[in-house]
Amino acid sequence: MNSVPATDQYLGIEPLRPWAVTRSTNLKNFSRSIVFGLVAFLVTIMTPLANIDGWAVAFLLINVAWVVGRTSRLGVKERRDAVLRLVFTSLAVLAFVPWLSIFLTVLLKGYRAIYPGYFFSDMRTSTPEDEFNIGGAGHAIIGSLIMVAIATVITLPLGILSGIYLTEVRGRMTFLVRFIVQSMAGVPSVVAGLFIFTTIVQPMGKYSGMAGGLALAVLMLPTVSRTAEEVLKLVPDDLRSAGYALGARQWRTAIMVVLPTVKSGLITAGILGVARVIGETAPLLLTSLNTNGFVWNPVGGTVASLPTYIFSMFMYGTEYSTSRAWTGSLVLLALVFGFFVLARRLSTTAVQNAKTDSRKARKLKKKS
Amino acid sequence: MTKQNADTVTRTPQQFEAASEFRGLETRGAHAWFGTHHALADVSLHFPERSVTGLIGPSGCGKSTFIRLLNRMHEFIPSAAMAGEILLNGSDIYDPSEDPALIRLKVGMVFQKPNPFPAMTIRENVLAGIKLAHLKRDNHDDIVEQCLSRAGLWKEVKDRLGASGGSLSGGQQQRLCIARSLAVEPQVLLMDEPCSALDPGSTLRIEETIKELAEKITVVIVTHNMQQASRVSDYCAFFLTDGGPGYLVEADETRKIFTNPTDSRTADYVQGKFG
Question: Long-range contacts for B229-232 (Cβ within 8 Å, ≥24 apart)?
C-alpha cells in the first residue's frame, strides 16, 4: 500500500453537485408560479370563474397551456411526460386539500379559547359559557391519556404476541387468528362500546376509565397486531437461522433476536394504535361517559376524555361552548400529530443510529 | 446406489462397534427431500475429528442441503424429509431422544451471507450464543477476546466492541459470525460458502482462521472455489447431479482429489472443464 496522499494535494478541487437544480432555475420556477398565480387572480376578477376554486382551475389551465407550449417543439414522449407530471402534481395537491381544510378550520375556530390554564384546569368551577380565561380541558386530556394508557398496556403485549404467533410460531391456528384479527378491525366502535357496557359497566354498576380503556383496547388490538405482524415479517430469515444455529430454542430466538431487531417498528405499531383510538367517541359515551373534574382513579366512576368533552361542548350549543369544543379538537389533533411525529422519530432513530455507526466506522478506518 | 443403501441397513454388530468408536461426524446413506423432490441421494461420508473437509461440486447438487442435514437445520423447511443416519461421535443426531437445539449447539454453522444480529453490539454478538442457549459462563471478557482473536478480528475491533455489528465491513461481519459460532464451543463447524461474498483479503483471513480452527474442531466447508478447497481442506468430497438427486461422486484426501482422482468427472471438475 502506498502512503496516504497528503490532503493539500487536492487543494483546488471543490466538491460539486452537477445533478442538483441550480438556484437560478429554482428562482425562475418560483417567479413563474407567482406570475401565473397573479394572472389566474386577474382571470377570477374578469371572468365568471370566481373564488379560490376558480383561481385553482385558472392556475391549472395556465400551467397546462405553458407546459404544452413549452414542449410543443419537443417530441411526443417529452410532452406526455411533462403533462403527466403536471397532472400528478395537481392530484397530489388535491389530495392535500381536505387535510388542509380540516386543519385550518380547527386552527382558526379553536385558537381563541387557548390560554395556558386550558391545559391545567377543569370545568368544575366554570360553566361552558364562561369567558375563555377560566376553565379548561386538563381533566379531559388526563382522562384520555389514562384510558389510552390502559388500552396500550393491554394491547401492546397482546398485539406483539399475536404477531409472534403469526410470523414465528406459525401454528395450526394461524389462519384463524389472522381472520379474527382482520374481522375485529371491521367492528364498529359503538359495538365495541356496547360489548364493554354489557360485560363490565353493567356488572360493576358504574361507568369507569377502566371500562373506557378496555373498549379502546378492543378497537386498538387489530391495528397493533396487524402492524406488529407486518413489522416482524421484515426480519430476514437469516437472523432466525443464525439464532437456531447457535443452539437457541424458538421462543428464545424470537425474544432475543427477532424482537430487538424491530424494536422501533413495534413502538410504531403501538403509537399507530394509540392514534387510531384516541379520537374514538362512541365507545367512551357507553363506558366512561364524561365529567367536569379531574379523575385519577380509573375505577372510580365516570371519567372525562377529549372526545366526550368536545361532544358535550358542542351539544351545549352556545357560542363560547362551541369555541371550547373547537379548542378541544385542536388539542386532540395536536396530540395525534405529536404521536405520529414520535412514531416517525422512533422508527427512524434505529436507521440513524446504524448510519452514525457506519460513519464512525469509516472515520476510524480513515484514521488507522 | 440401492445396493449400498442395503449395506448400511444390514450392518454387522462389529461394524456397529467400529462406528461408535469413530470420533467426529459421519453420515450413512443420507438422503434429503423437499416435498416430492429428491434433492440428495445416499451420501456416506466421514468427517474425522480436527480436520477440514471441503465439499465441492456445481450449483444445485445438494451440498448446502447436505450440510444443513448435519446440524438439523434441514427440518426448518416445512416440506423437508430425510433418510439415513447422521452420527456425531457415534450417536445418531436424528434419534427421537436427541434435542435439536443441543445438536445445533454442538454442530455450529456459518452462513453464506454474513448475518450478525443488527440490534446487538459486536461484544453482544459474540456472546449471543451463550445467552441464547442459556450457557453458564462467567469470563465473558475472556470469551469475547478469545473468540474474536480466533476469528482473526480482535485487532480490528478491540477498541469499538460497543459498536453495532452492522457497522463492520462484509468480511469483518463474516468473521464476527465465525467468532459468534465459536463462543458456544462447538465440536463441529459447518460453513456454507463463507467467502462467496468477500474480497480476496478477507477470504485469505478467513482461510487462515479455518486452518487454526482445525487444530481444535472439525470443520466442514462448502465452496465453489477450487483453489480455496485445495488450500484449506484436508479431505475433499465431490458432489454431482445428473438432473436427478445430487449424489457423492468421490471423497478422498484433498491432494489425491486434485492430482489423481479416481473418477474422470472429478478430474474434469477440479480442472475447470465444467461446472
Answer: B229/B54, B229/B56, B229/B254, B230/B254, B230/B258, B231/B207, B232/B52, B232/B54, B232/B207
Residue B189, classed as helix, strand or coil, is strand
The packing angle between helices A51-71 and A76-110, to 10°, is 160
Q: Please say if the pLDDT value at position B134 is more than 90.
A: no
Among the partner-chain residues A256, A261, A354, the one whose CB lies closest to the CB of B132 is: A256
Question: Which residue in the block uniquely carries the three cell numbers 435439536?
Answer: B100
* pLDDT reported for residue B3: 44
List the grid coordinates of A313. Answer: 361542548
Average the pLDDT over A29-34 and give the result: 92
The Cα A193–Cα A198 span in angstroms is 9
**Degrees (nearest 5) of the Cα angle A334, A340, A342?**
100
Of the partner residues A246, A257, A357, the one whose CB lies closest to the CB of residue B163: A357
Strand B80-88's sheet: what is its strand order?
Answer: B91-92, B80-88, B24-34, B37-48, B246-253, B235-240, B52-56, B218-222, B188-192, B107-110
8 A C-beta contact, residue A227 and residue A272? yes
pLDDT of residue B2: 44
Strand partners, B30: B43
Nearest CA in chain B to A256: B132
pLDDT tens digits for A261-307?
A: 998 889 889 999 999 999 999 999 999 999 998 999 999 889 999 99
How far is Cα A102 from Cα A169, in angstroms, rounded to an integer? 44
Among B159, B169, B180, whose Cβ lies nearest the Cβ of A246?
B180
Strand, helix or coil for residue B57? coil
Give the gyration radius of chain B's Cα atoms: 19
Residues 71-110 of B with CB under 8 A from A: 71, 73, 76, 101-102, 104-106, 108-109
Q: Identify whether the C-beta of residue B210 lies closer than 8 Å to the C-beta of residue B222.
A: no
Question: Under a CB-based contact definition with an 8 Å cutoff, are residues B57 and B16 in contact?
Answer: no
Residue A167 has what DSSP assignment? Answer: I
C-alpha span between A360 and B166 (Å, rounded)? 12
Q: What percent of chain A has pLDDT over 90?
A: 53
Secondary structure class of A185 (helix, strand, coil): coil
CA angle centred on B188, ends B186 and B193, rounded to 5° = 115
Q: Who's near A60: CB < 8 A, 6+ residues apart?
A: A90
Q: Identify the pLDDT of residue B150.
A: 86
Its pTM stands at: 0.79
Write down the H helix ranges in chain A.
23-46, 51-71, 76-110, 138-164, 174-184, 189-196, 202-204, 209-233, 237-245, 250-253, 259-261, 263-277, 282-287, 306-316, 319-367
Question: C-alpha grid cell for residue B21?
Answer: 468408536
For A299-321, the pLDDT digits (tens) are 988 999 999 999 999 999 898 99
Decide: helix, strand or coil at residue B181.
Answer: helix
Contact assessment for residue B19 and residue B75, using Cβ atoms and an 8 Å cutoff:
no
Helix axis angle, A23-46 to A51-71, nearest 10°: 130
B233 alpha carbon, distance to own chain's centre: 12
Contact flag B128-A256 (C-beta cutoff 8 Å):
yes
> Of all helices (H) and strands (E), which one includes residue B17?
helix B13-21
DSSP letter, residue A20 = S
CA-nearest residue to A255 within chain B is B132
Q: How many residues does chain B have?
A: 275
